[in-house]
Write the structure tokens for this entry.
Amino acid sequence: MPFVELADGRLQGVVSSGSDIARVYVSSIAATTHHFNCSTNNNRPCGGLYGSPCKHLNALVDEAIVQYGLDRVARYLRVEVAEGERLINKLDGQHEPAPAAMVFSRFLRHLAYLEVPESVTPVPEMHWFR
């Protein structure tokens, strides 16, 4: 259930834990430096960060490509990806802590739309979505 956005100069989002259904990770990759971070929503570092992107960051990039397309994500991250190459392999950043609270807050706000009763009337906050 990845939540992905291109915002604040980063590809960022929330990715489910592969081992614990109740845990999510806030992951991000900076557009210019490609520095990356992955932590739980309460800022505990991901145990899979060993100097290279973890599985949550891989999932974030894969989902961003599904939602936005390879060209747009590569352009946002300022990287060139040849045919047959994986975008994640073109990133040359290092681990750099980044705040998780703002991204997690936007994720929770998006989840709230799942609880809106079905209706044919417009939802004012979603007017841009049409």
User: Anything to note?
Assistant: The helical segments are 55-68, 70-77, 101-112.
